[in-house]
Amino acid sequence: MQDLPNIQQTTTDIINSLAYLGSEWIIIVGFLVIILTDLFVEKSKMFVAGLAMLTLLTSGAFLVHDLINFQNSELLFNGMFVFSKSAIQFKLLIVAVSLFSLVFFYQDHRLTKHPKGINDLISIFLASILGMFLLVSSANLLMLFLSIEMISLASYLMVSYNAYQKKEAEAGMKYVLFGAVASAIMLYGISLIYGFTGTINLYGDALIIGLSQIGIGASALAIILVLAGISFKLSAVPFHFWTPDAYQVAPTSVVSFLSAAPKIAVFGFLYYLLPYFQIGDTINQFILFAAATSMILGNIAAVFQDDAKRMMAYSAIGHTGFVLMLFVMPQALILNAVLFYLAIYSIANIGVFMSLSYIENNYAVVNISGFKGLGKNIPAMGVCLVILMVSLTGIPPTAGFIAKFLVFSSLISFNSASIYITFLLVIAVLTTVVSLFYYLKIPLNFFLKKSVGDLPIARNSSVLVALAILLTFLTVLFGVFPSLLNALIG
Amino acid sequence: MPGMRAGKTVRKRLKFRKEKDVVEQIIFYILTAIAIGSAAYVVLSQQLIRSVFMFFVTLFAVAGLYVFALADFVALTQIVIYVGGVLVLLLFAFLLSSKDALDTISEIPSGLLSANRLPAVLISLAFFGLLTYTFFNIDFQNLNWITSAQASGNVKSVTDDTIRNIGVNLMSRYLLPLEMISILLMMALIGATQIARKEPKAL
Amino acid sequence: MIPLQHFLLIGAVLFSLGLFAVITRKNAIQILMGIELMINASILNMVAFGKYDKIDNTGQIFGLFIIILAAASVAVALVIIMNLYKRTQTIDPNQTKSLRG
Amino acid sequence: MDSVFTNYQILCFALTAITAPFLAFVFSLIFKKLAGAFGIVSITVSLVFSAILFFSIWQKQTFHFSFSWIKLGNVSVNIGILLNDLSVIMLLLVSFVALLVHIYSVEYIRKEALRYRYFAYLSLFCFAMLCVVIADNLFILYAFWELVGFASYLLIGFWFTKKKAVQANKKAFIMNRVGDVGFLIGLMILLSQFHTLDIETIFGAKGIIHSSFIHNGNWVSPFASIPDYWLTIAGFCFLLGACAKSAQFPLHSWLPDAMQGPTAVSSLIHAATMVAAGVFLLLRVSPLFNDVVLTTMASIGLLTAFMAATIALTQNDIKKVLAFSTISQLGFMVLAVGVKDNAAAIFHLSTHAFFKCLLFLAAGMVIHQLHHVKDDTKTKFDEQDMRNMGGLARFMPITTVVFIIAALSLSGLPFTSGYLSKDAILISVFEWASERGGVYWLFPVVISITSWLTTFYIFRVIFKTFFGDFKLPALINKKEKELHLHDPNLWMKIPTIILAVFCFGFFFALNPFSLEGSWLHHAFNLEPHAGGLLHLFVPIYINALSLVLIASAYFIYAKNKIVFTNHKSWYYQFSYHQWYFNVLYDKKLVGLILWKAKITFWFDKHIIDGIVHLSAKAILVLAEIVDWVDTHIVDAFVNGLANIVSSWSVWFKSVQNGKLQHYFIWMLFIFLSFIIYKVII
Amino acid sequence: MGLLSVLIFLPLVFGILILAMPKSLNAWFKYISLAVSLVQLAIASYMYYHFKTGDAFAGVNQLSQYQWLENLNWIRLDVGQFGVLQIDYLLGVDGFSIGLIWLSALVMLVATLSSWEIKTNLKGYFALFLLLNTAIVGVFCALDLFLFYIFYELMLLPLYFLIGMWGGVRREYASIKFFLYTLFGSVFMLLVIAGLYLSVIDPVTGNHTFNMVYAMNPANYIDGSIFNSLSNAEIFGFPARTVGFIVVFIAFAIKVPVFPFHTWLPDAHVEAPTPISLILAGILLKVGGYGIIRIAYGIFPEAAMSLSFWMGLLGVISIIYGAMAALAQRDLKRLVAYSSVSHMGFVLLGIASLTSEGLNGAMMQMISHGFLSVMLFFIVGVIYTRVHDRDIYNFRGLANKMPVFTGFVMIAFFASLGLPGFSAFIAEAFTLIGAFSSQTLNGLLPRWMAMFGTLGILLGAGYLLWTLQRMFFGKFRVKKEEWKLALTDVNAREIMVLVPLAAMALVLGIMPSIAFNVMSSSVNQFLLMFK
Fold this sequence. Notes:
Chain A is mainly alpha-helical. Chain A has helices spanning 7-18, 22-40, 45-69, 85-105, 109-112, 119-136, 141-159, 166-197, 206-213, 216-234, 242-249, 252-273, 282-301, 308-326, 331-363, 374-377, 379-393, 399-415, 419-439, 441-448, 462-480, 482-489, and strands at residues 74-76, 81-83.
């Protein structure tokens, strides 16, 4: 039958590929085991936690193993999956973030005191990690679509997981509808690309040849439509509208996870994608535009936010724009800066959310104006928050500064003469200054303002304190000795 | 079962297609008209329940169009999953959520009064114009991949056994996505049930 | 033979109508229907192009995946929408605007 | 050039002379009770060493010692001591007068609780003034010049609880600062032109100023070449500095106000020494001045002399009269420098120091005694107002005598020192005018008139104060005997008597009529005057008229024969009285002069001072404007940026209005715009 | 561990120690700080005393000529395509920094003594204070741009909290304004630093380097790199080096502060607690001047020369504008704050003149202003701690009640209005002389600038004497009756603070060569770069 693919070859390829996906398999296994455990084991909360932890650690171990043992990039599963060093690095980052998030889930009162239990969330969580892994390794548009959908669905579910309040339910609805529209747009773009090029494979020449044949206008259309879905996951402008709502009402630990891990995955994919869509300068201009607007909007809109998590949502938009700046450069130039920035951003971000969760657990305040005078009661947390905020702003001696500097210097070295990049840099700098304003609002309320009434002494969530301090310490440590982090992720 | 009946109709039409291209085209355009017309009704109707039912028609019509693209299995799946699953789901949701709305049609806000309407028209038209402009600027028959496909005979014909091809492909080339989507479905299932589950009284 | 453009144009019409629905409908479920229209447009494109891809059959298989995924996401979306309905007794996206700013 | 002393010894002497007051300053602040003793001892030491230096340097040699103070790149600032004829005579003069004032002050300031400060400040002043005199370098000169001003500031404001006093000292300091700015700019010009500020190197006989020249509109020196107008500017800058310090028009108004300080201080600082520093500076840098500057300087001197003299005519505050007199006399000196007769300037500076110091001290005695009366009787009256005096000669004979001697000297009557020095100036002015002719004849005419006015106003003071009726008893309803008015004790008398001795001409010249015979004048007068006839004529006509004026003043003020208070009756009476010097001294002239005096005073008070105040006001207004600009424009710009950010923020928030479908519209709109931009354009 | 490292990190170590100590030991914190400051001062004095002068130790653009040089590999960050990010822990001292280091040590000591007035949350205060101390000393020692920048920014955070937590009524506004202002400049500067890094290579290792000494040598620039003067790169149509200079200049001009970047200063000074005002005025402003000399002028000499006219103009405007604004104030602290603007204008004018006199004068002015502004702010603090009011109109005749204090006030006032015998006189005179001779020597500044600059001296006399007259002289009268008791004369601790400051101002005024000697060869070397 000549109209069938070469089964022999594809099967061999699949069998050969199996060995490379150790980390993914482990997660799938973990996912299934946890579902089963949840079904058949009573009082399985801590057991599931242990399992999930074990899964992540094992998966991480596989990744480390891969990182050490394999150097070459390979296409697996008949061109579905790309195995490369950079992908492993991104995945490692995801695992690290997930580990912190996992611990965090169990400290978040909104989740732990949830009557329906937390186990289902953990399984969704694992599935979303799987989605991220696959996204990072996506070698074609089908995989891209599937994995993005996987992450998205998982995110919708996690955000709406215990949406008992009106607001929470509302945010879930907005998130899911917004996401569905974005993915429909992306899907349409994918269909166009397939139509224009006859292939969905990102690697190889077919895509570029096909796209260049149909001309810049049409290819730009297709590419931009595809980028819409990616931008949605990055919450880059103009696909950011869901972000503040979802961040504001979702459980803090979930937000912490969603603000870091999916972004790492999407950036990881974007990194892989970068060389293949270079028809004209569409992708560069899109990224330029998205980066600039995200930085401006995110940082400026954050200024007057009172809800801490909402503010962090806008801050996340701003940071997305900042990282996106890097992607106007050729692939070869950006890996370290992207990884470094994402790692540092994640550390600081998770730290901040942990602190916020700690405050929420103890004082039930989520508004920044409610933080007045807390510095006296929980100085350690206050100091952590200050340092983390400073890191997010990018001021020495925190790691955020090094990260920011890497981005700047990469851009300058790439092409500082380009007026667009100069503009981008200027915007980045100005919004950095603006960002200081709202980041400092938290310490401002913490230390500079007097509390309205007497505040009880905090007693809960000592794990969160420990973790926040650890993350803060890391922030400073990597700020002073960034080589350490580089050694870790490299 | 309206879905089954629609499937049969399509099959019958397939037989006719060989005999006359003209008939084929006529049917195609009739389907097109149905699809677009019903879709427009879905979109524009102010009566909720009718628009939902009209959506059935749209989906059927589109499934018919799939057949014209020689994707009979996809058409089938569309009918089975979309019409049989998704739409029924939608309908249930409708019935659950809009009990009051169903009683009094007039309560549904008029699309005309909606402030979103003008931007919506503009945006939709712009999109449509853009797409049309793009499609007419491309000479699809001379695209590299299509010409090479035609040259190497990599073009479907009506007689092809697409189902077999799909089966083999799914189990070989597209194995990983297939496995993945199973996980995805499972996750969606768990999550959906989890959320839909009635929370214990304790809360 | 039906020209490829015609499929694409139908797809474009469906897509635009879907967009229109997404923007104007006052009911989350109808918005979801609009989204489904858009997705259908994509599937149509996919299968139309899939004609020239006999061996790998990417178009059709992609279409299948889309359908399945759409089902899954509709399920998830509906659950979430129903959850909202349970809390607020409305699924008009314009009525629910407590999150803003 | 042989000297009894080695250079090393001379250096030690000079250093001792200047350090002694400084040590006194420091110790006075520490050992408060011994302040007066420290002051007197130290200034005596200074005087002794000054005298030694004088005799070893005067007309014998120039001593110059310096060491590198700061070295920066191509500029090195040396500091050191320059002792030449001018320095040593000034050194002697300053320390001598200062000693007398110190002694006088012991009594004058006895009752003050904070008198240790007084002596400390006085010592500080002496230190600074001595340093000004011997500084070899304009930079150092400038430094001590300011320090002198500072000491003056402290002393004027000695009674710091008196509002007027603190206002006066502020005014004095700030107006001096105006001059300092000029001085500083002058320094900058010189430094950039000559790369040094050493007085000897620049202005000495072989100084580089002589090798600089104007060429093609450029002022070329061995080091640099700058446009020639900078030469003029430099001259004006130094002139400005001198004007401020020497209270020349238009920066003179601080001096009358400075009379708020203790009288002894006025006598030392604002009559004898500090105010002379301006003239001293002009003398130091005189080779710098070109013709424009010199003419301006002469005009300023003339104007100041005339103006101040006319103002002095009508003042009732005894110290104010003396203050204006000082301004007027300084105008003479500046005029002398302006007409290039440095010798006359120096000469007049020296003689003026004695007699003006004496005048102040004598006036101080009067004030002091009246103050005692005020304290004793616990009444209130202004002890400085001449209208409250009169007939004091009976009670205070010695005071009267010394005052008259000084007044004679000021008037420049024969046998007095003033006669010599003033004539020297007048003669120079005549010669200068005759060389130039034309409108320049105004100078000798006006200066002659000024000279007469001087005689008139000073004798007006004498007659009003010491002669005529004693008005005080009537004023305070006390009998004369209750007042216990008498000469003060020896602490005050002795210095005045010594000074009175020095007011006589023979001290400066063996032949009291011969200017040529004056050793002091001779020493500096490098080009002897040519016109012999003037030497005869000028003194005669000046003095003759002066005598007449004295007499008239006597009748006007002591005998009240002519009453000015009522203009009408005045006019009338005058025509009926036998005293009609209608030709020379007619009522009209006197009236005119008095009227003019009032006008000038009014002008001075309201226009000149007004301008000063106005400029101060203007600066304040400007300051307010700047402040406004600062808060409303500069800061508002910054805040405006913040506002932009916040308004954007508000806008972004309003876009995020909670309506999902609006989000869709925004999203699709932006997205579509971008696509259209990419696809179509 | 070199001497400089000890100097820098000593406060940090003790700051951490204070953090670790229990709150019950509150009373000890200030003594620990005091001890640290004393040790620092001792070390700084030792260094100053042993500082070698002469052309062989000029420093500036000769790395080997720096003293107490410490060079450690600090960060070697692999950044993929561009090779290795080489950041060195490079410390060293030359004539420009040694004086400022000593000044910092002294001001820190004074500020510590002044911190006695702080009563709340001592632990946090002293920990932040010592952190600030570390940052400040670090700024003056760092020779690696990156290190410099880190210390530079590190100053902001402690200051933000020190102002914000222990400050006056509008402390939040003031502290955030200060922070934002400074960050605004410095983040742009970061771009330039990155650009410099990519343009400059270490001649020894061949890596890119942040070494600011290497950046001063045109030979170390890579061909075609953005800041290579030969590559004629442009940013927004302007030459890249000019843009770089302007950006760096603005960053430091904000710190100095130069008109029109000064408006943070009055607010920050007024709201800051006294010890922080001292530090702000005494050291922080000098960081700006130091940065302009070392980085803006040092690294972009030709751009600096071409823009010197504008720099000078800004300097003159600052001088006059600051003085004018000071005249209009009735809050004593605000007045002093604006006077700082005026005085620091001289620094800029002197630098812009690019003459030996001007630069020496500018450096001298920085040091001198260090002592004097500290003294002035301390004086304000003395009144403020007693009655919590600073309005000039509310006081009169304080000399009656506080004679010793008035004596110090007079010294401070007259010293800062440039009375000879005090350091400010030398500094301002030389600055102006330098500015004046600039036209003859290098044609950069027109002469009228110097002449206008002298107006600043005049106006300075105006506002200071007015204050003196208004507040201290005349009959004793204050706004509230209870103040009469509160206004006591200075106590021993306050005298202990004021005396050394006054003494330093006097000593430098009489023997300026103490300061000039150490810096003059560096200045000469510096000027050679502009030939």
